[in-house]
Fold DUF91 domain-containing protein.
Amino acid sequence: MTDQPVFVLGGDLQALEPATFETEEEFQELLARHPRVLDFGSLADGQPLRLVLVAREMGVPTSAERGPAYWLDHLFVDADGVPTLVEVKRASDTRIRREVVGQMLDYAANGARYWPGPLLQRSFEETCVADGRSLEEAYGELLGDRSPEEFWSLVEERLAAGQMRLLFVADRIPLELRAIVEFLNRQMRQTDVYAVELTQYRGDGDLRVLVPRIHGEVATAAKSPSGRRTTQRTTRDDMDAVIRTRLAPEPRQIATALLDHAAARGRLEGGTAKYPSMSVRYPVAGRQVPLWTLSLYDDPAKEELAFSFGSITHHLGPGRAATFAESLPAVPELQKKLEGEREKGYKGWPSITLASLAADPDAAEEILAAIQQLMEGGGASDDVG
């Protein structure tokens, strides 16, 4: 069966015939200028989704020591701070069947590790300048009552938690790709995966009609009764309830001490995962620096504290990160991970279970002392551009 035209009825009836995109560059430019063709679904408050371009050809590093190894076609973001990664292929490109899936998973995994909030903010603002768009107008679609720094910190947290969308966009979506997208969507808890078939029809002159068709929505709807990701944040009361009812006395004491200190000296923010979690930012050298995340999983043996060394290094420099690492408790499980961080330039999220920390009676006090030392360590950060 051949593709049928669509018809526009104005003064006369005009037939628009199916037309391919002549080049992938043309296809990519269209999406960058008109992301509305990718807007489907809604935000957490029920408002329509609107994607805003962060960057075209967004560099994706695979290590902290090197520049980009890959280039993502488009990175968008929405007002909920959810990143959307887009790869564009024409149907004539044989990579649309399987190879593009491996590429996208590479981009998602490494972007989550090596795209800190300030880098994303800089990329977004440079894109706005290049497109001749005012930052006030662009941010008006995103911020609400947040500052730009708060918004991009939220995006960074979404990435770290795997809360993102992956979009495969093509003028024809082969059955093999549809099957992979639906499988990934059923298996991935935090990440939504879609294939968008964008068919183009051309008429006389510059008249064009673009018809998007979304694949993967059924699998996404099955993830929650509402058909959308819940963005309800963990509260301190949620954390206290789990700590009180599920943790043994020693881990309970550590978790409570950390949360109390954070509430008094820093800024706590609840996570949006299915398990209770909270992160904290402390004021250091005039910046709000993410330092740790406490996650209370369903399995008490896996409840853990993770240190945000990537953010510490980005905001304060590797020297301050190294000093902080040296001040943390000498618990073997943690020290082994910190040794790995030392070799990688302090870019990751080393974690330790609360049960392991509880084996050291001085662990909580030493962690709080290390945080205090970091906060009081002087006004200047090192090696930070």
Remarks:
- The longest helix spans residues 249-265.
